[in-house]
C-alpha cells in the first residue's frame, strides 16, 4: 500500500475517530498504527493526552487505548513533569500545570513493552484576545446535497502581535434549544418496564414518533473543518472579519456559540494546514495525497515506524456570542429544525401518560444543563 495513503488513513483515524468506534473505509489492510492525540493549552482545564493503537481491518478502523504508558513532559529541555494515567489511554498532567508563552515543550513516553517515543520540541506562542464577534444572516448560505440552507455567518476581529510571527487555529461549539429528546421508529416510547426507551411493536412498522423533552435540553454541535491562518504576510496588522462559522437556521429561538482562538507554532500550522487541505479538499480517500502527513512523534529506536498525530502546545482564548436570528424572523423564514423531518407526535389517547415526556440524557452532543451565556 502506498505509504502516503497509510499516513492519510492514520491522520483521519485520529481526527475523526479518537474513541473505540468503527467507521468504513474502502481500503483493505491489517496495519496497526500508534496514534497520539496531544494538544496542551494554557487554560485551566485538565491537560491530557490520549494514546491509542488503531487497527485498519478490511475497511474498518478501530482504536484501542494503550495502557500502562510512562509519560513525561520536558520543559525547556531540562525540567520533566510526569503524566498520571487516567484510564482508557488517557494521561494527565498535575492540576497545577500551566503552559507559558515562550517555553518549549517535548512529549516523551515509553510503552509497557519498553518501546520509547518522543516528539520534537513545540514552542508556545502568545495568543491575542478576540476583540469583536459579529454575524450576518445569509439567504441560502450553505450548499447541501439536497439544496441550500439559510445560515448565520459568524465573524471575528483580533489584533495580531507585531513582536513575533503567529499562526492561528479557530474552532467553535454551538448550543441549540432541543425540544425532542427521543425519536422512535417502528414502535413507541415507554417509561416502564425498565429500562425506559423506544420499544418495537407489531403494527408500528414504518411509523416514526417524536417525543418532547421533560424539561430543558440543548443540542451541541462542533466545528467540523480546520480553520487555520498565518500572519507571514500580515504580521502586526488587525485580523478583521475572519469567517469562523456558518450556522444553519435551525430554529428561531436563538443560539449560543463559543469561539476558540488558538496560537500555534509554525510546524503545527504546517501540519494542520496540510491536514485541512487533504481531508477537506481531496475528492476521495483512495486518491494519493500530494504529501505525506508526517507528525512530530517518533519511535526513538525505529524512526521508520509510522506514528499518527501531532504534539503541540497552544495559547487559547474563548469568547461566547449570542446569535439572535432577528433577520430570518423578520423575513418570516421557516427554520430547518434539528431533525431530518418535521415533528411527528404520537396521537393522544385515553391511556394516562400517553404520549409521555422523555428525559434529556447527558451525552457528548446533548445536555440538560443550561449553558453559561444562554438567553431565555
UniProtKB/TrEMBL annotation:
Pfam families: DUF4249. Residues 343-376 are annotated as: Disordered. InterPro entries: DUF4249 (IPR025345). It comes from the Bacteria. This is DUF4249 domain-containing protein. It comes from Emticicia aquatilis.
